[in-house]
Amino acid sequence: MIELAGVSKVFPTASGERVLALHDANLSVKAGEFICVVGASGCGKTTLLRLIAGLESPSTGTIKVNNAIQTGPSEKIGIVFQDPTLLPWRTVMDNVMLPIQVLKLDARRFRDRAKELLAIVGLDGFANKYPHELSGGMRQRVAIARALVHDPAMLLMDEPFGALDAMTRDQLNLELLDIWAKTRKTVLLITHSITESVFLADRVVVMSPRPGRVVEEIAIELPRPRTLDMINSDAFGAYVRHIRGRLTNVPAAQLQVAS
Ligand SMILES: Nc1ncnc2c1ncn2[C@@H]1O[C@H](COP(=O)(O)OP(=O)(O)OP(=O)(O)O)[C@@H](O)[C@H]1O
Ligand SMILES: [Mg+2]
After folding, report:
1. 127-157 pLDDT, tens digit each
2. Domain that holds residue 124
3. What is the mean pLDDT of residues 220-247?
4. Confidence band (pLDDT; 50, 70, 90) for 258?
5. Within this chain, do residues 234 and 184 fall inside the same structural domain, yes or no?
6. Any atom of ligand 1 within 6 Å of the Cβ of 10
7. Rounded to an integer, what distance in angstroms lies between the CA atom of residue 214 and that of residue 209?
8. Does the CB atom of residue 23 touch ligand 1 within 6 A?
């Protein structure tokens, strides 16, 4: 479904220097897989996601999505950005419907789906509210509904729950796994939390500090459906310790080890 081969990304900066954000990144994701990416702040995670989404082009290497070279944004992909980026002057419903408008799809066909998604993310009855009337967690749920409304085969999520308290985060993690189990989308989710990555993923991809490379991929063989009590199991703890060990050359301040 996603195939990165030898992907590097260099950004020119305002001062004329060049920043190597990603270096020789290789990654292969199968359809229906749930992948989490962990790595220190600034190691190139958002860059990786933007490249896969077709919002940036690689400096070297190739990115294939569904066996075709990625050339630009695609309706097969839904994205949840690092902050919810809702349009303040549009209602919740109109925010969720934004991709339909941008992709010039028939709004009448998708309104029911938008309502259904709002119910799934626990926002029944909020369709006509405005973003400023919602809590941070609720806004993030709107962003998730918006990413799913056009039924993309793939969901890319950039630290979607990073700004939330631990309880809301647990709740949304469970909801996300539920949506994934029902729809079997391919999910690539970036997180700072090692615990979250082990809880959600089939496979955790560990990146090195900048310039980011994939240093290890760890298959998480915990049973599904995952439940919160698994977090206290020995097997879960062993995965967390292993991943933390792979990230130990990273200054502690850059890592939020667990949430
Ligand atoms: N458009 C850009 N122009 C110049 N430099 C950029 C640009 N986007 C990212 N960078 C640089 O590339 C590097 C990787 O940035 P990126 O946003 O991918 O990191 P990240 O892993 O997502 O970090 P965080 O965990 O803090 O979100 C950083 O050094 C950043 O300064
Ligand atoms: Mg980022």
Report:
1. 999 999 999 889 999 999 999 899 899 999 9
2. 86-152
3. 96
4. very low
5. yes
6. no
7. 10
8. no
Q: How confident is the model at residue 249 (pLDDT cuts 50, 70, 90)?
A: low
Is the CB of residue 15 below 6 angstroms from any atom belonging to ligand 1? Answer: no
CA of 17 to the centre of ligand 1 (A): 14
| pLDDT of residue 191 exceeding 80 | yes
- Tell me the residues surrounding ligand 2 (ion) with CB < 5 Å: 46
CB 35 within 8 A of CB 205: yes
Ligand nearest to the CA of 50: 1
Considering the entire predicted model, what is its pTM? Answer: 0.91
Task: Assess if residue 66 is contained within a domain.
Answer: no
Whether the CB-CB separation of 241 and 72 falls below 8 Å is answered with no
Q: Which residue type sits at 92?
A: V
The residue type found at 70 is Q
The answer to whether the beta carbons of residues 256 and 248 sit under 8 Å apart is no
How many domains are there within the chain? 2
Domain final residue pick, 129, 152, 175: 152
Residue 222: how many other CB atoms lie within 10 Å: 16
Whether residue 3 is contained in a domain is answered as: no
